Amino acid sequence: MDQSLPDSASLSPAPALTPMMAQYFEIKAVNPGYLLFYRMGDFYELFFEDAEIASAALGIVLTKRGKHLGQDIGMCGVPIHAANDYLNKLVKLGHRVAICEQVEDPKEAKKRGAKSVVKRDVVRLITAGTLTEDDHLDARASNFLAALAMVRHGETDFALAWTDVSTGESFTADLAADQLQDELARIDPAELILSEATRLALVERHLFAPAWLPISHIAPAQSFDSEAASATLRDAFPGGAFDPSALSRAARSALGAIVAYISDSQKGVGVALRAPVLGATARSMAIDQATRASLELHQTQRGQQRGSLRNAIDLTVTAPGSRLLSARLAAPLADAVAINERLDAVSVLAGDTMLNGRLRSDLKAVPDLARALTRLALDRGGPRDLAAIGKAVSAALALSSHFARLDDVPTVLARLSATLAAAPAPLASMLALALDDELPLFSRDGGFVRKGYDQTLDDERALASETRAVVAALQARLIEETDVRSLKIRHNGVLGYFVEVPAAHGTKLLEEPHRQSFIHRQTLANAMRFTTTELADLEGRIARAHEAALDIELRIFSSLRSEALGRTDALRELADALAELDVTAALAHLAATRNYARPEIDTSLAFEIKAGRHPVVENMVQAEGHSFVANDADLSGADDIGGGRLWLVTGPNMGGKSTFLRQNALIAILAQMGSFVPAASAHIGVIDRVFSRVGASDDIAHGRSTFMVEMVETSAILNRATRRSLVVLDEIGRGTATFDGLSIAWAAVEALHETTGCRALFATHFHELTSLAKTLSRVSNVTMKVREWEGEVVFLHEVGPGAADRSYGIQVARLAGLPEPVLARARQVLDILEQRSAGTASSSQKASVLDDLPLFAHQPAAKPAGPDPVHAALDAVRPDEMTPKQAIEALYELKKLRDDARRS
Ligand code: ADP
Ligand code: MG
Asked: Does ligand 1 come within 6 angstroms of the Cβ of 658?
């Protein structure tokens, strides 16, 4: 424990604060909004409200320590060695933590007087968006910090900047207010900073999404100052790597705020960011927030990984590869040339499974270069990070050699292979020579430099281990002298080296003649501890040898670190290339093993899918031992006929409508991210935006009714879709009364056809809509086929031309186990309603239905009186007492009873 720690008495109410409390308050005051982890010895302690919050969040004991202004001071603590886990938990819960360390040796404080307090300072602020340690991060997910800036210049401009502090990647985008929600949904930041003025402006326009609330942090207005940003940015990106004047004022303000925030959180260590990618979103396929959620691209609607598209297609073997795949899925391309370049590369590897297999198996061993490099740059890296760099470089060189066998290398692979081949080999050999095989996490632990690398280091180490032999000899001699066989020389952090004897022998050493040489240090329950002058001497020698060795190791570490950081640009490019190769190889593997086909991508209005499948449902259906039914779709259009086609999809519940709709949207997204697609063939003219909506899903959390949600989203589509878009609407209009819903669905189909001219799929239960196909030239009806068999429906999941005449709701209800009497009654009502609409119901039937609806009489079908004979017979059966023959007879008897019961 900290020697300067006052006992609880000195914390008791006093007119003036104790020096320690004064220090605590001072530090707390300059870090508002942070839980203060106040270092005391081997613990981080939290006080007052912080202690209450942390103890509740972490499930640790809240204790008391003295009083302040007459009130007990709440306190809780976490041990240093376990601090990471606790930090993790707090940050995941949305808390922000300031780490306050002792910044001088307690001995120094002592020199200033017995009561003086050890100097402490906050060395780092830890927030969800500024993490760099592997312990805190999900290896396969990016961790973005985003800043949202607003500049009022007549009209209002917004910009976003975002960065993954752990890899240094950074981006900016200028956006209109109504793009913010979609863009932030795509980036999915862990933390969002904005000024109070920006927040208010957004709230005023109803543009502040509820999802932002838990991740938002209000930063002071001056950190968004666009003038000050120029200077901040020039410092953060030195050497003319990037010119801040290339940014819009709003983007400069956002990026400036990010840099300021990071450098503040790292407390002057630096920021280690890469030059930002400007206008990052302009070139990609737009997928709005609702579409992203409805298509379950990165997670299911319930927030799970399993069942998402990403989960189904991510066959990458490295964490950076997985992050890149995720980023590509979040932002597919909208440029046919670039898409085809990616597809060319995937195609070559998919066609050469031998080569691809080798690449993938070599890639498996590639460490996370980008994150290791950032930690080193922030002076938070250890020997393992250095080793990671060496390993990545050697792996890159080995990988590049595999490409030699290709005759015709597509552009992307040629670029990757050139980058891999240019990896700094001398750096890798230097690191391999210097670093041991087994490495500690921190350089301060020492013992990571390989034997034989540095002569002086080896000499010091020999001395240190030699002294160990000397300790053993000394122990033998002391045993001899005292005649205490169980005497041991031991070591711990508090006492250093000491002599330990069982309590029974302790007194012996306290007496003559031994009390001359043995100095008492400690009495434990069953042992006594001593030191001797000789041992103290030896201790000094050992400590000096260790210290000298550690000094040398740290010097070596720091020079290796500078060597590595001197290659930052090359290494970052290398990290990118390795991730890109992993993604390409993974997509090739996906194509080869799951029977995906290369899509034909051009700038037409084509959308022709042959034998398409749903990438996720296909896996699920197959896992259950069934086969997925592939379906065609053709929405191809042309400008001279007014745009793309619209298919109206009708069919029974559970027939496969939603699956069919989504699979086509997913095929489009996969194709434009540069992946092969689950289909026999696909021809797609580049799509600028995809929209997918499912009707009738309440958004209770946001306080909007089903119908309101539907209408808000339908209007968003009608306002934003272009002729180049793909629109998928699943049962829109269901959330209101039948005629309302039908009319709106009707009008929406007309608008999509007449005004937008996009390619569209529209699933509906309103069979009336199918008559639109007669009047609208590019509308066609298709239906999910079913077969009726012995009164039950069999879903064929097959899309064919035509319109369904019924929904088979009652059959589905039966599959779901609705009670038979309810089903019978429903059938009765349906019959009458259908006859009525056909005009054939007798007036008395109509009347009776109207009388009974909506509180229709629940008449349970007559149940057989008394116990059911089948069950009674079954109860009487004693299988243990039966011969096989008797058993068979009993079975026949049971069947007969059942048949009789049915007939009656
Ligand atoms: P709908 O929207 O018409 O009610 P869904 O698309 O939700 O029907 O499909 C219901 C279920 O049918 C799915 O969960 C899936 O198990 C199965 N299914 C759908 N399409 C297919 C298909 N093409 N091949 C095999 N099974 C399918
Ligand atoms: Mg459906």
From this structure: yes
